[in-house]
Give the backbone structure.
Amino acid sequence: MAFLVEADRLKHVLRATTVVDGSRPENSGEHSWHLALYAMVLADQAPEGVRIDRVIRMLLLHDLVEIDAGDTPIHGDYDPIAQAAAEEAAADRIFGLLPPDQAADFRALWTEFEAVQTPDAIFAKALDRAQPVVHILKNEGRGWRDYGVERDGFLRLVGARVDRGAPALWRWLWTRAERYFS
């Protein structure tokens, strides 16, 4: 129960991306739920061998570390080494609230997602990078303008990850996003 109560705090972590209607920032709890739904709906976009049940579990857990470490916008200015250390410490603390076997299982899923090496993690990371793009597209590029995102940075930080895990989804996104980077 301590873990479940602690996980509720994720609802208070505000992200740089707004909800689709642009009325307010999305919180990380909403983001995690939405990504799990993305995985269910877009399962047909996953490469062969991807286990959607594991992807959903990863996506529900992946941002819990933000309770302690905060959200770091990928186009923002931050120290990636310090952020990674803060997230590791947060993972130790938060997953440590669970019984040992469950803590090890959840922590392993989180670590796998962060490493982005397995087919499940590659697809999960692609969805994690794609979902904010959909929100920004619905807000006429507002998030990209707010952060001064340029084409090369977008293609490197977002495009490469989405294309690697869900190429058809990337093509769909890029045909809509390209006009903001001309």
The domain at 2-181 is CATH 1.10.3210.10 (Hypothetical protein af1432). The beta strands are 14-18, 25-27. The chain is about 65% helix and 5% strand. The chain has one domain: 2-181.
